[in-house]
Amino acid sequence: MVDRVSAKDTDWDGVRLHVVTGKGGTGKTTVAAALALALAAGGRKVLLVEVEGRQGIAQLFDCPPLPYEERRVAVAPDGGDVYALAIDTEEALIEYLEMFYNLKRAGKAMTRLGVVDFVTAIAPGLRDVILTGKTSEAVRRRDSSGAFVYDAVVMDAPPTGRITKFLNVNEEVSGLAKVGPIRNHADTVMRVVRSPETAVHFVTLLEEMPVQETMDGVAELRAAGLPVGGVIINMEHPPMLDDDALAAAAEGALDPDAVVRGLKAAGLEHGAESIAAVLTAEAAEHARRTALQRREKRRLETLDRPRYVLPLLPDGMDLAGLYDLAQALREQGAA
């Protein structure tokens, strides 16, 4: 059997911008961080970008809140570095004004007066141009030798319900500018976002609402001509019972006497009957959840996109768990 990791047999050869989206509560930021670690493994350099101002990356990597600068936050398996950037909209706007209008001092004055918030509120498309523009610049950036500074960039993007509008900045700025720096900047962003170097990955749980949002999001991206990546199923609950036991539990047909006998055989004599009743009820709930997961998995199969499954970590999420998820993504060909 071929080792997909050592053979670098990944599903995303040539992709340099990985946009990660998902319904709130699906673990989008965690998966983005794990993907960045996976992509950096083996000596590569990856930038992980956060655009929502929640400092979720800092929490995951157990480091202080990130300033508005690219900073190394982790060493990947087999060498390689993960850098992180938490984009501050005000700082990015000042940078933008200096770059295109030579107005850095004016930008700082605008920040003090609260004009930045006013501008981005009345022209939300401009905010998205700034955020996506900073990310696409990192994708295109080269060093003095002409090589790309980063082998890949991972964006922890807004939730699924907003992802198409967020990425489709040309459409969003059409009412703001027909020509000029803003228009040119948006066109540059779109060349990156629409290119084969970009893939938008969806994170979901095996539950009805997240799966439906994923399917709707994929359809919206395709309609907008934006590149759909893979589907990452997070926190899958593995079945604890075989199919026969699951069917019996779902029907309420588990033999409580058999459960009591098993408990007593394991040395739990005291209160075996009450424990058996609780276990029988939990088995029925587990059977229901397993059936739901299998149904939602079949729905996701209709998307005809690469799928990756990450397990529910029994001890919760910590830095070690993040590395475990990165390894799981590598083994499945996501990086």
TrEMBL record:
Residue ranges of domain ArsA/GET3 Anion-transporting ATPase-like in the record: 17-188
Pfam families assigned: ArsA_ATPase
GO molecular function, one term: ATP hydrolysis activity
UniProt protein name: ATPase
Protein source organism: Actinomadura rubrobrunea
